[in-house]
Amino acid sequence: MPPERQKKALDTTSQKRGRGRPWTVRASEIAGRASSFQIMFENVWSRIRTELSQPTGEGEVLAALQKANPYDRELTPWASLIFEVVSAYNFPKTERAQIKFLADSIAALGKVTPRRSRDICAGERLKRKQANHIIRYEFYIECSCRYRGHSKDHACPKCRAKIDFPVNLGSSFF
Questions:
Q1: By C-alpha distance, which of 112, 85, 104 is closest to 25?
Q2: Domain check: are 83 and 164 in the same one?
Q3: 21 in any annotated domain
Q4: Are 83 and 69 in contact (CB under 8 A)?
């Protein structure tokens, strides 16, 4: 007689993976790192701009990053990635665009391609911009023209009489 198989306990959870490809990076992390890199590059760009304009090798980029005090320790590990981004054909020409492009490109730290890293940063910025916020608020009013209902643009929709706010509420209300 074969031994009885033990039944699975009822309180265990399934170890199934969710739908889709598993995430390798977090978008919010990349966007936060991009803004940090952007601040770093803004502070040292005047010192490293000339060396990064036409690098011929990773060694030149590494030498330029040594001049990026006090951020040299944070930037030097990514010299090969920075060289790849700076030597790309679509590297921008203006200073401000170069800083943003470089910061967004290396923010994923090589876990995804520089192009995908820039796309993730752009998506996160768009998400932040489109976050829920109040566009307009209105009041229920009873006007001297006998209109009763919701105001429109803080005025009576029938006779356009404005709502007078108390002085102390005006600044904190709007």
A1: 112
A2: no
A3: no
A4: no
One domain for residues 118 and 149? no
Q: How far apart are CA 100 and CA 41, in angstroms?
A: 9
Domain coverage including residue 41: 27-129
Task: Answer yes or no: are the C-beta atoms of 37 and 107 closer than 8 Å.
Answer: yes
Question: Is residue 10 in a domain?
Answer: no
Report the residue count for the chain: 174
Residue in 91, 110, 111 with CA at minimum distance from that of residue 101: 91
Taking only the tens place, the pLDDT of each residue in 21-70 is: 777 789 999 999 999 999 999 999 998 998 888 888 899 999 889 888 89
- Single out the residue of 62, 60, 103 nearest to residue 85, CA to CA: 103
Residue 150: strand pairing partners: 140
Q: How many domains does the chain have?
A: 2
